[in-house]
């Protein structure tokens, strides 16, 4: 009988000991900060990729000329230019739509045809379009504004709410994305978060240690459109699953011990 109680005591000690985790595993950016090294913000303009949906707004001094080169003109607002003439903003597509970058990396615009977009930043594409309108003598003093309509990041693994998230801004960092997904669970590896990025058909992989201040200096600290963030599971989760088995064994052992006691009493 004493041997049975000894076994139960050992099982209880194992359960209590295995449930005690290291608090440091749940903390972000631990340790001292090298402010001289990390104070400079390293943000790289995202590069347009195949499959991106772009919104393109066109501005010029002549409202009629601007409308004439757009497939479906819709005046948004009139802006006063430096010369005092009215400037008209016209969206390049109907509300809720945009220009899709095809698999060859091109978009097609009315009057100017196919334009290479993949591999460019928004500014580079905007400058290229403006130059094309001038070269073809379609507009005078054109100004083009390009934005992403499908800026999204996918988070999978040990986050509270895995899924694909769309952002209204193109400057989203790894902590903001994780917080929108409900944070990393207690079973997620904060010191080894993977970021998968595709640029011009080439897939890149990087591992970020969110427990170190150096993460602020990583070129992957700011995410780009279509990035995938993968949070791996720690061994603790498997241990917890094992604890369920141990708990069941403990309950069974307790039942057996109770039965043994009654047998001894009524023997």
Features of the shown structure:
single chain; 267 residues; alpha+beta; 5-stranded antiparallel β-sheet; 5-stranded mixed β-sheet; 6 helices; 14 strands; 30% helix; 27% strand
Folded structure, characterized:
There is one protein chain. Residues 72-96 have low confidence and may be disordered. This protein is 30% helix and 27% strand. The strands form four sheets. Strands 1, 2, 3, 4 and 7 form a five-stranded antiparallel beta sheet that branches. The chain has a five-stranded mixed beta sheet with strand order 9-8-14-11-12. A two-stranded antiparallel ribbon has the order 5-6. The chain contains six helices and 14 strands. α1 (2-18) packs antiparallel against α6. The protein starts with a helix and ends with a helix. It is of the alpha+beta class.
């Amino acid at each position: 009988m004493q041997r049975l109680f000894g076994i139960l005591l050992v099982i209880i000690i194992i359960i209590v000991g295995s449930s005690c985790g290291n608090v440091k595993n749940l903390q972000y950016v631990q340790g001292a900060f090298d402010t001289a090294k990390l104070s400079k913000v390293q943000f790289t303009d995202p590069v347009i990729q195949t499959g991106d949906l772009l919104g393109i707004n066109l501005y010029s001094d002549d409202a009629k000329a601007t409308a004439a080169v757009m497939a479906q003109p819709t005046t948004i607002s009139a802006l006063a230019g430096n010369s005092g003439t009215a400037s008209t903003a016209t969206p390049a597509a109907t509300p809720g739509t945009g220009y899709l970058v095809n698999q060859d990396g091109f978009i097609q615009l009315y009057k100017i045809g196919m334009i290479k977009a993949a591999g460019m930043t928004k500014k580079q594409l905007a400058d290229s379009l403006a130059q094309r309108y001038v070269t073809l003598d379609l507009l005078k003093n054109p100004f083009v504004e390009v934005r992403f309509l499908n800026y999204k990041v996918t988070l999978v693994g040990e986050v509270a709410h895995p899924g694909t998230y769309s952002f209204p801004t193109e400057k989203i960092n790894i902590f903001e994305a994780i917080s929108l997904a409900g944070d990393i669970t207690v079973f997620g590896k904060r010191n080894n978060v993977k970021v998968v990025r595709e640029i011009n058909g080439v897939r890149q992989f990087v591992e970020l240690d969110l427990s170190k201040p150096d993460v602020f200096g990583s070129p992957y600290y700011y995410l780009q459109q279509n990035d995938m963030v993968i949070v791996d599971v720690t061994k603790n989760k498997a241990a917890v699953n094992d604890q369920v088995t141990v708990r069941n064994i403990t309950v069974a052992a307790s039942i057996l011990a109770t039965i043994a006691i009654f047998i001894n009493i009524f023997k």
